[in-house]
Amino acid sequence: MKNFLLICIVCVTFNFQAQIHNQSWQDIIHNKEVFWFASVEAKQIAENVLLYQREIGGWPKNVQMHKPLSKEKKEVLIALKPQGKGATTDNGATIQEMLFLSKMYHQIPDERYKNSFFKALDYLLEAQYDNGGWPQYYPLRKGYYTHITYNDDSMINILNLLKEIKNNTDYYSIKPTKLQLEKINIAYNKGIHCILKTQYKQNGELTAWCAQHNKNTLEPAKARAYELPSLSGSESANIVLFLMSIKNPSKEIITAVNAAVSWFQSTKINNLREDRIYSKAGKLIEKKMIPDVNAQPIWARFMDLKDNTPFFCDRDGIKKYSITEIGAERRNGYAWYVNHPRKVLETYTDWKLKHSVNKNVKPVNEYKIVVAKDGTGDYKTIQEAINNTKSFPYERVTIFIKNGIYKEKVKVHEWNSNLSIIGESKENTVITYDDYFNKIGLGRNSTFYTYTLLIEANNVILKNLTIENSSGEVGQAVALSVFSDEVAVINCKLLGNQDTLYASGKGKQYYKDCYIEGTTDFIFGSATAFFENCQIHSKKDSYITAASTPKDSLFGYVFKECKLTATKNISKVYLGRPWRIYAKTVFINCDLGKHILPIGWDNWKKPEAEKTTFYTEYNNKGEGFRPEKRVDWSYQLSKRESKKYTLKNILGKYKKTSKKEWYENL
């Protein structure tokens, strides 16, 4: 039996080695099927990866980590761990090991994989220079290794990793801590800033990048003897592709891309191809450049900083202007011509269309308009789309907003009636701004100017949106202001603190399946508003509503089938107080959390309001429903009285007919 087990172990080991023997480490990371990362082979390789990682967090380069390790080799690696020696991001090192561990963790949630990934992430963040660049090695090694290194895409690989993590794309299964995410965002932005600062100006015009730049002066720098300061046709291409991948690029990024593309177009080499001659054993023995009118464009690896002339170097570091002038060892052992910029030129046209603003272009369908921050819609901003819609249209105009964070102050003017603004998803279509009372500074009425989204038009529908005032706890700061009639807000999140929702005017408004949060008076105003199946969330011990219902209005704020919740440790919340003395607020069939005070209502130091307000409830439930403890000037409806609080009776126009109401078309 023992011999049988021994044979099995030998067979498994042999099969494991046979399966991966002819594969490279990069192939294993990038080309293995997802399920393979749960295999015995993968777990054995993962042990090697953990062993190779230095205590500082990085890995050495050019290591075939899937190769079996002897006991002696393992002891050497254990001894090297605390030294940090060889830790680098060159040739894909560290980045590729992080990807491997991420794929392992997705299949096998071993905490060691996650901890190793985090250690590597901290290593990358620590290695970054204050100017945003990264060296080739960290801890720093003397010589050219301290330069900001674009060579072999070292820095771009780091930035692409940070971009995937910060954008939460699920490319990496291991998610950062909140503190790490904050650091990632800072590092990512600093890295982009470094790229923009190092783009080389030739005779005052932006061009491309060198493979490495001095960490202090940011000027192009020398690496090995045959890698002189120059403009790179290789590394520059992937820098530009990275910049083009950024959503919502700044003007500076757009300028950098346009300039680099112009440079690629001016430096491309036509009618020339590279032929390679191999020995019978498959070894490269000669490269020859052959004239060919049908050849695809190529670019030189190195171009002169003054005039873009291609040049070549041997190990003596002397510039030559023909590849035939350097020895066979360097001529055949180095990539002197590249085709990477082709991909830039292939994708540039579409990219430029997305990021060029032509305000004279009209949507294909003026009644179905698309807004997308990445330029794939009719407009890039919501306000631009609204400003270009028909005034007082006979048919409903729908503006569909693709997912994204739209930081803009949006106004739907009175003439933009019959309008639907529909988000792609409530969670990911965010309209946000950060105005507040003191920031506006227009006197005692400044609150009314603080809105993120203002609705002045009738017959407007808002759906699947997050509308946020992001200013924080700084006083009055409105997220959504609605002044008009027949406005519906469906499946939306209204986020803010004090004065989140200003539901005002003399019109009728319908809020359904919404989440509304705030601190003080976060639902306030004079409208007749029906809230159905909404979550009303208090973030502070304070007041939910502050109605200013006109004296002649039959209804004010009506909450039906709503759930009142609160942040932890909040325990003293009033249902409302009267902003004006005829305030009307009703809660029917609602679930009131224990944060609601037993007395329920406050008179806002207006004793006269106790005689004029209409604060009432019916059939509520939850720990916060204490009708016997309510202030004696509030009211509990009878079953008969509650029957008039129907959607049709409150919001309808055709109460005595069967004609379809405005809210029935939502």
UniProtKB/TrEMBL annotation:
Pathway: Glycan metabolism; pectin degradation; 2-dehydro-3-deoxy-D-gluconate from pectin: step 1/5. Keywords: Aspartyl esterase, Hydrolase, Lyase. Its EC number is 3.1.1.11. The active site is at residue 521. It is an enzyme of class 3 (hydrolase). The lineage of its organism: Bacteria, Pseudomonadati, Bacteroidota, Flavobacteriia, Flavobacteriales. PROSITE patterns: PECTINESTERASE_1 (PS00800), PECTINESTERASE_2 (PS00503). This is Pectinesterase. Belongs to the pectinesterase family. InterPro entries: Pectate_lyase, Pectin_lyas_fold, Pectin_lyase_fold/virulence, Pectinesterase_Asp_AS, Pectinesterase_cat, Pectinesterase_Tyr_AS. One of its GO terms (molecular function) is lyase activity. One of its GO terms (cellular component) is cell outer membrane. Residues 369-651 form the Pectinesterase catalytic domain. It catalyses: [(1->4)-alpha-D-galacturonosyl methyl ester](n) + n H2O = [(1->4)-alpha-D-galacturonosyl](n) + n methanol + n H(+). One of its GO terms (biological process) is cell wall modification.
